[in-house]
Structures are given as C-alpha cells and as structure tokens.
Amino acid sequence: MKVYTLERIESIQDFQFLTDSSGFVLDQAGHLHQFRGNTTNVVDTPASFSVSHFHFLDEAHGAIVGHSRLLSIQQGSLGSVGLGLLLLVGLYKLIAQPTKLQRWLIGTCCLVGVLLLSCCSAWQQYRIPDASSPYSTTLTRGLLKAGSYHLYTANKGLHSYVAFTDSHGQRWDTHPLPTNFYATALTAIGRNYLVGTYANPYEGPRALHADGDIWIYGNDSIYSKVLHKNTLPHHYSIEVKRGIRGFSFSSDSSQLLVFGSDRMPAIPKDEVNSTEGNILVLPASLEPNYTLIDVPDTLEVCSLAQSATNELWATLDNKKTRNANGKLVYYPLPSKKLLRFRGGQWQEAPLPSGYSFEQVLFVPGTPNGYVLATTGGLFETKDNGATWHSLALQGVRKMHTWRQNLVLLQGQNRLVLLNSDTTK
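The chain above was modelled as a monomer; its predicted structure follows.
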C-alpha cells in the first residue's frame, strides 16, 4: 500500500495515477494540479473556463473540458419538439402573406410535414430486438457523422470548452464545444479524446433535459480506421440522444461503454431516440453494430463496469423521473442500487442488504472487483462477483485503477494505491 496526502489541496474532486507515485488531481474549485508523492503543483489551464473533467495519456499529453461560467436562472425551456415548433412559428411570422388564411395554410402544411416525418417508420429496419434479452436491442445503422452545433434553449449563456496539451500543460489548444450542453464525461480511445455531454442533469427552474452527444477529437486510426479523416472544425460526433454520465473503456477492450440517462424522445423519430436504454455499447471501431441496454424503470446509471466474464455491473441513481404538469422532475428513492447484467437479465447483486452504492469497478485483466458504498466503505470480490467481502477501509470517496492496481481517494485529500496483494 502506498499513501499520499496532498496537504496543499483542501478537497480533491477527481484524480488519475500515471505512475505508482505521480499523476494529476482536480480540486473542488476546478483547478488542475500535478502530484509527485506528497508534493503538488498547480497546472496553468486556460482562463476562459473552469475545468470539470480531465484525462491524460501520459504526463505530456492530456485534455480538459469545462464551462465558462454558471448559468443564470432561466424560466422555462424547450426541447427538440419545442424547438421545432418555435422554428415553425418563426417561419410562419417571417413569410409575408396577403391574407391570414394563407398564413394559416402555410403554418398548417409545415406542421403536418413535421408530423408526417416523425411518423415515418423506415428507421425501424435498423432496430433488431435481442432474442436473448428483453433489455437489449441491436442498432445496425452507423451513428458516426460530422458534427454540427447542438442547442438546448434553456442553457442560454452556457459555453463549454475542450483544451489539449502536448507540453505537460505549458500550452493549451482550446476549442469551444459545438454545443451549450454540459460536458459530463471525458476519455480516450488510442490518442483520440471523446467528450460526453448532458443537456441539463439538474432539477430546478430550468427543465431537466436528458439529451447528449459524444464529440470526438483526433485522427488516430489504431482502433477506428474512419477517424483518419477526422479534422477540426468539422470533427465527428455521435448523437446518443440521452444524457451521458460516463464512459468505460480499457486498452485491452474491444468495446466502449457509454452510460447515463434513458432516451430523449424527439421528432423526427429514429432507432436511437425511440429505443429505451441507459447503456450504449459501441465497438472500438465506432462502426455498427451497436447495442442499447436498458436498466429497469427510469433510473440513471451512475457507474458501470465489466468483469472478466463480460458481465456488466451498474450502480443506479437514487431518484426517478416523472412528468409533473408537463415538467420532468425527480422524486427520491431510499438507496442507490447495484445491479448485475447476467444471462440477459438484471439481477440484484449478491451483497448485504441495507447498503446504498456509489461506484463499481473491476480491475482489467483480473477477477478482482470493488464496490464503494455511500457510507465510504468498500467491498471486494476475487472471483468476478460470485462472492463479496468487506475491506477494513473507510472514508473512501472515489475509485480508479492504475494498471492492475486499485487507487482510491480517501477523505478530502488522501490518495491510496493498493497493489494486487494488499487486500489478500
């Protein structure tokens, strides 16, 4: 076991080990730091935004995402349907017609056209139910495309950014994300960075909106040959059409797991926004076929891991969504569940009852897995989840892996590295 206490940082938000004694941490104020042992140094990042997520390939090469400022409170919002109707109204008002009847006819024709387009069923040929599981659907049409700007009208004033460094953070190449969604996830496939977004995950005066995309930066074609054509500013994107909470990918994996909210219904309909599912499984090539996996009910997936036996394990949020007077709102549940996707079915995890769970992960290349309870306690499996036991660790707030080791954030500013023999 190796322990590093970063006393100069009041509270750590997230961390990444690059060696067994060095890496990067993000504090709660959105400042990035590099640590070596117990010593930390602030990394100068672009002043135009506050960092919310980071990912480094090595000490020199990395990426950060964040937002320019907090949103001002907006009263009301429009989703995809509302935006379409707004455009129709604008078109209706802009076209000067001699009579009210002609204006009404034009508006009616446009509205009927949108509705007819939404009712088109050709997209259903690209959706194949999985005979082995009622929760799984195969999507056969490619999702990768050159991106365009994606707007959520209630997020007026929100500007999101991504920045890259190849000089240990000495210089940053900054770009605005082509959206005003929140940047909520960041990972890498090869030397390409993937940014996940969520239109609005926060309940309040602005309506919840569970839409999201993956924006892809880089033209490394080691996993995906099509990315050799990926260039700025018309870089590739994938419309996930649900809010993204995170990614799960490892270098020895052939799949990218994307998880978060359920679908965001929209007009026109297609196989993505018309299929329930909280987990999107993409081949590392980013080409078809894809799989959408739905968790029971309307809960969000907060963390996701895959064991060496290819079973999925997911922790779920402790709140459900419902429609109240036309507005999407949350209502609370007593705990955060841990579920196991085995044999095409979701099952309760074989852990003691009465616990609420924050995070699950499996160490790549091993049968070892870990579950973090909301109390800060830790459970371990050495047999891919068949049996679990508690560890004598408390105050744990977050888990990651480094190579085949477990690394932990304990308390406010303590990092712990456990090698494969430590917990025996």
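The CA atoms of residues 193 and 217 lie 5 Å apart.
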